[in-house]
Design goal:
A hairpin with a 4-residue loop joins strand 13 (544-548) and strand 14. It contains 23 helices and 14 strands. The chain has helices at 3-15, 17-32, 42-49, 54-61, 87-97, 113-116, 125-140, 157-167, 187-198, 204-214, 226-236, 252-266, 278-281, 284-297, 303-313, 320-327, 344-349, 352-362, 455-463, 480-483, 492-500, 560-565, 586-591; strands at residues 67-72, 101-107, 147-151, 173-176, 384-389, 392-397, 421-426, 429-434, 444-452, 471-475, 505-509, 522-527, 544-548, 553-556. The chain has 606 residues and is α/β, with parallel strands linked by helices. An eight-stranded mixed beta sheet has the order 7-8-12-11-10-9-13-14. A four-stranded parallel beta sheet has the order 2-1-3-4, sandwiched between helices. Helix 7 (125-140) packs parallel to helix 8, helix 8 packs parallel to helix 15 (303-313) and helix 14 packs antiparallel against helix 15.
Length: 606
């Protein structure tokens, strides 16, 4: 095991000793109560199985047969979740065949960030994670279940499901993926058309045709954004069946994996002899594995927020310094768009998670001794891949090495020696920067600030030609308390156009960018956020800023005494608290913690 990995893990264990201990004590108290369904009064239980078939009523009246709750984020507008419409029937039959009962415990909301990107609804996106966690808890609160299956893929949805699952940490849990859509229009071509549209060189018809060829069928979008980072993260923590993350929907193998996941969770209930509650499985080492996977694949910066909240739900305390220290030793081993030209289907064909996990284990860069939901307990089995044979579903040895070294590399010859995620610090606060998709010549920018409080104003200034110069766009009041911390990908095409014209450009914001963060350097998630008195609110147009994403430094070159004496600007952006449901989330905004502590309302944060 790499000594830095050991040291960071041990630091997290020590930092979390009290909170993790308290969490495990609550878990054990719940376990000691025995099968919860048996504690229900007759009226409670009768309500709980009133809609079941007669045979299932008899099964649930006793405590001999385990009952599996299904929590699903299905809707048929969200392409990644459309395949889930068929999963409950598959799961119920598979569980019945294996000697149990399954009930649909509850649905959770699932918004598509692709639909809401740059729109008012995006200001609900981050907080939807907390709503999903609470909705998960409501679904399981009927106390009818011995285990649970979680159906979700995208953006805030998997983190929300996982936080909710950890609040029921005494229940075994398996997460069930739906898989990516087949490859469509190459992502680089899609981005080229977007930039042409931003310049006014093609029209809406051409843009819509391009987008429709890229996002074209049921399944997850094929670029490596938050959704596919979620799937990687869940598998590398051992909550997916080995090799199941990136199997396309509506294929025989996908259906068999869904059935296998349903049967698998039955093996781990308290009624058996291999009890594996999720609260024990997701410990400090599992969280560190997720962090390592994020760095090794160049995954979504959203997880510098989500992983902190997920960890806290299990009593584990991590922070951005942990990301930063591990980024120094974890090399970039995957090139998936926007970090390269390949999509997730190419990644899967090159060997996928099995090759990646095996390479990390061989080099002492991953914890192999975690509790997983595979037939074995450690991560070694995750180098195998599922195959559908005449004898049924089997796990066989995966490729010994990458099948395409332009997509998956080795620790000896990585795409870059570090994980490409730096913590930013300086007199403008503290944030994060992802540089795995940023060319080296663009990773350091010194330029005058151009200050905005609304992303639409940035786009308008671009269209007027006012940004045709070296500049660092400072976009303020985008934090969780200000407006819910929307993603700001609306700015990527215009800033990309400026960069292609030879201008030195960058973005600094207390908002988010996520897994689609591309070729333009940025410092995001800046803390404290402007509404909490963050120094970004003191920056003025023309102030020279130095953004060095290689060293992690972000500073405004203003005399310290003068800068300190400045009065922080007020937020000039209006109309962000009402309409499209935003008025319902005033309490979420008011009480949100900082980005570095998970931007959450679910936990008390010092």
């Amino acid at each position: 095991m790499h000594p830095t990995l050991e040291k960071v893990t041990q630091t997290i264990i020590e930092r979390s000793r009290d909170s993790r201990g308290a969490y495990l004590s609550r878990l054990e108290a719940a376990v000691d109560q025995g099968p919860h369904r048996a504690k229900l009064a007759c009226g409670n239980l009768a309500h709980g199985f009133a809609a079941c078939a007669d045979g299932e009523k008899e099964d649930l009246a006793g405590s001999q047969k385990p009952n599996v709750g299904i929590i699903s984020a299905y809707n048929d507008m969200l392409s990644a979740h459309e395949p889930y419409k068929d999963f409950p029937a598959l799961i119920k039959q598979a569980v019945r065949d294996a000697g149990g009962v399954a009930q649909f415990a509850g649905g959770v909301p699932a918004m598509c960030d692709g639909v809401t990107q740059g729109q008012p609804g995006m200001e609900l996106s981050l907080f939807s994670r907390d709503v999903i966690a609470m909705s998960t808890a409501i679904g399981l609160s009927h106390n009818m279940f011995d285990a649970a299956l979680y159906l979700g893929v995208c953006d805030k949805i998997v983190p929300g499901l996982l936080i909710g699952a950890l609040s029921f940490g005494h229940l075994p849990a398996v997460f069930v993926p739906a898989g990516p859509m087949p490859s469509g229009l190459p992502n680089k071509e899609k981005v080229r058309i977007r930039q042409l549209y931003a310049e006014g060189k093609v029209g809406r018809k051409e843009l819509l045709e391009s987008e429709s060829q890229s996002y074209h069928s049921p399944g997850t979008c094929t670029f490596y954004g938050t959704a596919n980072s979620n799937q990687m993260m869940v598998e590398i923590m051992g909550l997916h069946l080995p090799g199941s993350s990136f199997i396309n929907p509506y294929t025989p193998l996908r259906d068999e994996l869904t059935k296998a996941a349903a049967k698998q969770v039955l093996k781990f209930t308290a009624a058996g002899n291999d009890f594996r509650p999720i609260g024990r499985a997701i410990d400090e080492k599992a969280i560190v594995n997720a962090l390592i996977g994020l760095l090794a694949t160049g995954g979504s910066t959203n997880h510098t927020i989500h992983l902190i909240a997920i960890a806290r739900a299990a009593g584990v305390i991590i922070n951005w310094d942990d990301f930063d220290k591990l980024s120094k030793i974890i090399p970039l081993l995957a090139k998936i768009y926007p970090n390269g030209s390949a999509d997730v289907n190419h990644f899967q064909a090159a060997g996928g998670m099995g090759v990646l996990i095996a390479e990390l284990l061989r080099n002492g860069l991953l914890h192999g001794d975690i509790l997983t939901i595979g037939d074995e307990r450690g991560m070694a089995q995750y180098s195998r891949e599922p195959k559908l044979t005449e004898a049924g579903l089997r796990w066989e040895a995966g490729p010994a090495s990458s099948q395409d070294d332009a997509v998956i590399s080795t620790v000896g010859q990585p795409f870059q020696p570090t994980g490409g995620l730096n913590v930013m610090h300086g007199n403008l606060g503290r944030g994060v920067s992802k540089i795995s998709a940023v060319a080296e010549q663009h990773q350091v920018v010194t330029a005058p600030a151009v200050v905005f409080d609304d992303q639409d104003d940035v786009v308008a200034a671009f269209k007027r030609g006012e940004l045709e110069k070296d500049c660092i766009v400072v976009l303020r009041f985008q934090g969780p308390k200000a407006n819910g911390m929307p993603e700001l990908h609306k700015l990527t095409p215009p800033l990309g156009v400026l960069q292609d014209k030879g201008f030195k450009v960058a973005l600094i914001t207390d908002g988010r960018m996520s897994g689609a963060s591309g070729k333009v350097p940025s410092a995001i998630h800046m803390c404290p956020e402007c509404l909490d008195g963050g120094p970004l609110a003191k920056v003025r147009d023309g102030d020279v800023i130095v953004l060095n994403t290689q060293t992690g430094e972000v500073n405004v070159q203003v005399d310290p005494a003068e800068f300190e004496a400045r009065v922080a600007a007020a937020n000039t952006a209006k109309g962000h608290h009402f309409g499209m449901g935003r008025e319902l989330f005033g309490g979420f905004r008011a009480h949100a913690s900082s980005a570095e502590t998970g931007a959450t309302n679910l936990f008390y944060v010092d």
